[in-house]
Structures are given as structure tokens and as C-alpha cells.
ASCH domain-containing protein
Amino acid sequence: MPADTYEDAYQLGGAKFADKLAALVKTGKKTATSSGFELYTIEQDPLPNAGVYNIILNRADKPVALTFTDNVFVTPFMKVTADIAKREGEDDQSLASWREVHQAFFSQEYQANGIQFDPESSMVVVEEFHTVYPVVQTR
């Protein structure tokens, strides 16, 4: 795919979780992802955009899926909804599980960047997307 037709190619969740999360995207079970807002500021990275294609990579940095980002928004960690937790497609898809897993993940990511993650005040960037390729049959 020509580089000017997609915005980014990346692993979800870093190398540790890349294969698991890419498989969820590939099957259409995962249609949302979240990242720490404050990390974009520290790393001076632009926020993701809606209306763009992205390539999801596995742990070996091989492409496994093409997604289209439908919506991007920033919300407090504690305001992430049960719907978003379900759309993330991970574990039992409950909000409680989402908070537990993501608080641990964000805490490690923030610490690696010299800041502290606070679930009461930290913000998350939520990306809602759909898988374009491989084609996923929806009901």
C-alpha cells in the first residue's frame, strides 16, 4: 500500500500485546483503542485523526489489518464508558476489566516517560475504527 494512502502503521499495546490485539482487530472484535493523552504531549506527537486509514502490525512488525478511523476523542480515564470497554474487545469486555488492565498498562507507560498516571485526573485518547481488510462480516 502506498505510504500516502494511510496515516500510520503501528502495533497496538506494544510488542507484549501486539499479536493478541492485532488478532482481535483482524476478526473485527476490537473496534476501539485507547492511549494516554499526556504521552502525546511529552513525546510531542500529534493526536490521531479521524477519517484516515492505518495499518495494524503484529509483534514482528508485519501488517495484519487495515483499519479506518471513524472517530477520535479525549476523555478522562474514569469517564470511559462500558461501550468503549466492550468495543476494545479485550478480556471479558467489561468496564471493570478495562479499567484494571488499562490502569496497569498506562501506569507502566507513564512511568517509562517520567510521569505518573493518575486514574482520577489522567486523560485518554479513544480511537473508534472499523477493519477494512481483511474484510470482516458484520451481522
